[in-house]
Amino acid sequence: MPRIDPILGERARTMRRMPTELEKRLWEHLSRSQLGGFKFRRQAVLKSYIADFSCPSKGLIVEVDGETHEPTRDERRDRFLARHGFTTIRFTNREVHDNMDGMLMAILERLRSLPERWPGPIDSPTPCPSPEGEES
């Protein structure tokens, strides 16, 4: 398993400890698998980037863009992560502030449209039966 760059890992931990108010508001809706039963992580290290929020089972990254985001850099980042199986959906700070319900519906719609990244319990192979359960 590849190791996370220690500097990037520490930066992600700091960002989790000190989220912006809008990140806190969105996390209230994404945490504890509240949105459609999908599990999210916040400030997750993915390759050489930190995603604001990510759903590992679907490979969906949710980014909240403030004034400091540079569209050209963000496009390059999104293309890199797409090559590694991730889909990015972006919202502005204004959308988080003014349209939380619409944003959550858009996230849920995107999650439902994406395939599972790995098999879940239903798709797992059937385990071997225990000797006690076998008939002689």
The spatial strand order of the largest sheet comes to 1-2-3-4
How many structural domains can be distinguished in the coordinates? 1
In round numbers, the mean pLDDT is: 87
Order of helices and strands: HHEEEHEHH
Kindly report the name of the CATH homologous superfamily. Answer: VSR Endonuclease
Shape: globular
Number of strands: 4
CATH topology: Endonuclease, Chain A
The proportion of residues in beta strands is 15-25%
What would you call the quaternary organization?
single chain
| Beginning-to-end CA distance, first to last residue | 43 Å
Give the low-pLDDT segments.
Answer: 121-136
Write the layout of secondary structure elements.
Layout: H1 6-17, H2 21-30, E1 41-46, E2 49-55, E3 60-65, H3 71-83, E4 87-92, H4 93-98, H5 100-113
Parallel strand pairs: 3-4
Antiparallel strand pairs: 1-2, 2-3
